[in-house]
Amino acid sequence: MNLFTPTVLGSLDLKHRIVLAPMTRIRADENTLAPTALTALYYSQRASSGGFLISEAVHISPEATPVWSIYPSVAELGGQVPGIWTDEQTDAWRTVTRAVHLRGGLIACQLLHAGRVAQPEIAEHPLVKDSGLPTPSVCSSATPIRQSDEKGNDYNWDQQAVTPRALEKCEIKRICEDYQLAAQNALSAGFDFVELHAAHGYLIEQFMADGVNKRVDEYGGSISNRCRVLFEIVEALLDVVGNDRLGVRLSPVSSGSFCTQQYFGVSDSSPETLYEFAVKGLNRYKLAYLLLTEPRVDGLSGYEQDSQALLPLQNTKYRELFQGTLIGAGGFNPKSAQVAIDKGEYDLIAFGRWFLSNPDLVMRLNNGADLNVYHRDTFYGGNEKGYTDYPDMLRLQEGSCYEYRQIAQETIGSRLKTIL
Ligand SMILES: Cc1cc2nc3c(=O)[nH]c(=O)nc-3n(C[C@H](O)[C@H](O)[C@H](O)COP(=O)(O)O)c2cc1C
Fold first, then answer.
1. What is the pLDDT of residues 346-376, one digit of tens each?
2. Is the CB of 116 under 6 A from ligand 1?
3. Burial level of 168, CB count in 10 A (0-12/13-18/19+)?
């Protein structure tokens, strides 16, 4: 078995197992919070025949939406994160899915409610002001994001920690409906799959983890109570999208050494038990896939600092627990991805940063070509620079001079080893 062994996702055929990991790029139109023509170009560049792409996080409502432009680094470059609750946003996403389908690819829409990571500033946006729609920030409990831990790690960049409002029990139904509207829009926009983003410290994890969730009703306390929101939202989404078209992303962590990854300050006292419960519970549904983030992930660093990528996989125990298709993400390089597929640790591998900088990653992995090295400063916000201007092999062969460095695939791991 290798990365190019065909497989099936839900009921759709894939020609290979290389997936574009969901990546927020903050290039949406600032007025409409909709993707632009550049977004369509970005995804179509990465599409391949029988290949699977997952969109960046797409926000289900104003209440779900962070305003990254409050960060000076993003404000300088401009851009916003996209939504999918208006007709205009839905229409704009249709141009993205069409562009991907034209190249024979499949694409999922990753739906996100950021919970306490979203900022109240969105209430002032013309699209939201006077709309009567609920605004941020909400959470399982009124637990603010800790701004930094004892090591000085800043969980929330330079944002002031606003104390969120604890959602009322009766509001959870409304949130399920927001997810359903977004999923309906995603299907109408032509997405092949919908993915529930239940990872990385956003709303659903803010319910799952007892470091944040202090509720005393049936959504707090025991692990099964804390996972209730996850399962209720999955069920609400399945009602709209049907079997085999819904994926879920989780980011299991454990308490051992480097696995104590925390996303936006979310922590749990017994993470192994929590994620085992969540993963096993998902077996009740006919999901298209489960995407797991490896806790070694260090997705924000630039290439030179990326010393975690060779740490061993930690999620392999979920292979035994989950009965469906498993996609892995987090620190894979061409070689380690191939090994994970070969050993059956994952069915598919999602690449983040290497796909970001290599629009034709699939072809390059197939023929062993050098990879463009990614440019950290343009991950978030801005224009085509660092977004759609990474050259494909054809452009490189034309001999034009490009500013992006190339690296031989076989040296990626060894180079990181010298840093470790
Ligand atoms: C710029 C950037 C934006 C990201 N945005 C998202 C996102 O919107 N949703 C998500 O689930 N993960 C997001 N991630 C995490 C990636 O999906 C992936 O797990 C991470 O990059 C690790 O994979 P890699 O080591 O192959 O880059 C992001 C990562 C990067 C680098």
1. 999 999 999 999 999 999 999 999 999 999 8
2. no
3. exposed
Q: Which of 42, 71, 202, 318 is catalytic?
A: 202
Taking the centre of ligand 1 as the mean of its atom positions, its distance from the CA of residue 297, in whole angstroms, is 9
Task: Name 222's Cβ contacts closer than 8 Å, sequence gap at least 6.
Answer: none
Domain ranges of the chain: 7-419
- Assign domain 7-419 to its CATH architecture: Alpha-Beta Barrel (3.20)
Question: Tokens standing for 134?
Answer: 């609920």
Q: Are 384 and 40 in contact (CB under 8 A)?
A: no
- The predicted-structure confidence for 35-56, as pLDDT tens digits, reads as follows 999 999 999 999 999 999 999 9
Ligand 1 neighbourhood includes 293 CB (under 6 angstroms): yes
Type of residue found at 420? L
What digits encode the pLDDT tens for the residues 208-249? 999 999 999 999 999 999 999 999 999 999 999 999 999 999
Which residue has the least CA distance to atom 7 on ligand 1?
23
Q: For residue 166, give the 3-state DSSP assignment.
A: strand
Residue 338 Cβ < 6 Å to ligand 1:
no
Span from the CA of 369 to the centroid of ligand 1 (angstroms): 23
Is 43 considered catalytic here?
A: no
